[in-house]
Design goal:
The chain has 143 residues and is mainly α. It has 2 domains: 1-85, Multidrug-efflux Transporter Regulator, Chain: A, Domain 2; 94-143. Helices cover 61% and strands 3% of the residues. The chain has 6 helices and 2 strands; from the N terminus they run H-H-E-E-H-H-H-H. The protein has helices at 3-10, 14-23, 42-55, 60-68, 87-124, 132-139, and strands spanning 30-31, 37-38.
């Protein structure tokens, strides 16, 4: 299958396919005599795996690690997702990712509280012409 067909089937751009190839997330495909890439059908599953893992917040480095966890050669050739994965290792990475997500949620909740306070201060201070949000950001007191 051509790179364009592969990209289309996976809902990503051609440059993204090339990038995944450069990063080693998918194997470099065979080429036709004229130099065109010819991807195997299994590449669709592998790229869909990568896209789904990204949607769960995994980085490309973490996805590479997930792809390398196998007890029977899953993904070693870089074309598909086959073999038997070490579920405990995958679970451990998922637990670690969940902790990271929870940390980021707490951080975002703190940012939201700070913004709510600044918006409230702005609403209470409308008549003065001075903006408490700008004043807070300039003074560094918004953190």
């Amino acid at each position: 299958m051509t790179i364009g067909k592969l990209a289309e089937q996976c809902g990503i751009g051609v440059e993204t396919v090339r990038y995944y190839e450069r990063r080693g997330l998918i194997a470099e495909p065979e080429r036709t005599e004229s130099g065109y890439r010819r991807y195997p059908r299994e590449a669709v599953d592998r790229i869909r795996f990568i896209v789904s893992a990204k949607e769960l917040g995994f980085t490309l480095n973490e996805i590479s690690e997930l792809l390398s966890i196998s007890t029977e050669g899953a993904g070693i050739d870089g074309t598909g997702i086959e073999g038997t994965f070490d579920c405990e290792s995958v679970r451990s990475l998922a637990v670690e990712k969940r902790r990271d997500v929870e940390r980021r949620i707490r951080m975002l909740e703190n940012i939201r509280r700070t913004l709510d306070e600044l918006i409230g201060a702005c609403e209470r201070n409308e008549a003065t012409g001075s903006c408490p949000i700008i004043k807070s950001l300039v003074s560094g007191e918004s953190h």
